[in-house]
Amino acid sequence: MALIVCPLCVREDDVQLVRSLEDGRKEAHCDDCDFTFVFGAPVEPKKAPAPRKRTSAPRVSKPSVVPISVVAKRFPTAGDVELVARQRADLLKQQFLATVPYAPDPLVAPHWTKYRWVFSADGLEKVAIADLKYFADSSIGASTGDATAFDKAWVLLGEFEAARRIRAVTNQLLRGGGELEDRLTGLLDGSFSQSMPGWDEALLTKTLAVADADRFLPVVTYADKKALALAVYGIELPVVDEASLTIGRLAVWSNDLLVALAGDDFDDLHHVSTFLRWAASQD
């Protein structure tokens, strides 16, 4: 190592290294002339690497969804209803059909007919924006509950963007790819990029009931169908599980189960839903 020369007395024999400074220079002391000095060139500290900029918001991972073919085996069937409960439900059905006159709301049939066309591929492109708004606010055929969230979104987005989203949501629900149950789940859990705030389970289920009146009851939430299944048939339906028994699957399967359990002899599915609500109220 090279010797350190004192800049004052130009001696090197009695120069001692004292310490290293934070900037990389050295401090030394000359015992001969009692002079302390600093030598060397300062070194710039290395900069910490700048944090990488995120190009998008972090994604929240979702659980992998088990295929329908596997999960469907876990959902109750008509055969799971106990004999005593089934016999009670059959007696209630006979009593209902014999003693409770069915007087359908005269507004329902034309409303259902109109919106069956509205939700068709052709009608959805031609329907007036006001008719889409009316469907969300109307209780004809099935009440969909508080519309505050939808009405707020309608105002904030503007009617043209709101109508565009309703069209996109409806096309996805009725004509999208994959299974209906999983399309419904995607529209409810926010996976669909063009979702319409406030166009919730009730409105989506009512859309299904209008578009396919021979399959879907005008009972618009899974919570209601779950309660009816327990009250009328004594069968406990499962709770929502995001990895397998998703809300879309449960909503569709509970509908199909109730229709199968109710059986024939009803005029239509509005008649069936009237029976189920009546039977649920019987002691």
Structure overview:
This protein is mainly α and 283 residues long. The protein has twelve helices and three strands; from the N terminus they run βββαααααααααααα. Strands 1-2-3 form a three-stranded antiparallel sheet, with no helix packed on it. A hairpin with a 5-residue loop joins strand 1 (15-20) and strand 2. The radius of gyration is 36 Å and the shape is elongated. Residues 53-61 have low confidence and may be disordered.
Which geometry do the CA atoms define?
elongated
Uncertain ranges: 53-61
Distinct helical segment count: 12
Q: pLDDT average, as an integer?
A: 89
Main structural class: mainly alpha
Number of strands: 3
The helicity comes to: 40-55%
Largest sheet: 3 strands, antiparallel
Query: How many angstroms does the end-to-end distance come to?
Result: 102 Å
Per DSSP, what share of the residues sits in E-state strands of 2 or more residues?
Answer: 5-15%
Give, in order, the helices and strands.
Answer: EEEHHHHHHHHHHHH
**Largest sheet strand order:** 1-2-3
Radius of gyration (CA) equals 36 Å
